[in-house]
Amino acid sequence: MGECYGVTRDRYCFSVNCYVNDDGPTLVEIESHWLISLDLPRGCLRKAVVNKPSSASKRQKRNLPYGTGRLMLHSTAIVQSIYGAIQEYGGFDEPAWLG
Fold it and tell me: What is the domain partition of the chain in residue ranges?
């Protein structure tokens, strides 16, 4: 991660959206799974969104036992660089994107 822009791992923010039930992984296990998979420090973790399964959906088998993750990086300089590259490749000029 971050090879193109020299972003260090501690600049990312990560959050999980998941279901937690009795027979599946705990929230700590889910968060650890993601942090290990993405090679991120625990300090990047933000508050998880834990959904409550309805009585009808409790009978369903979950295809995503570790839920979904959201990886964020807040950098105006990187966004402007990406927008500039899009304009260059597209051959058009949109100054409002860069200001």
Answer: 9-72
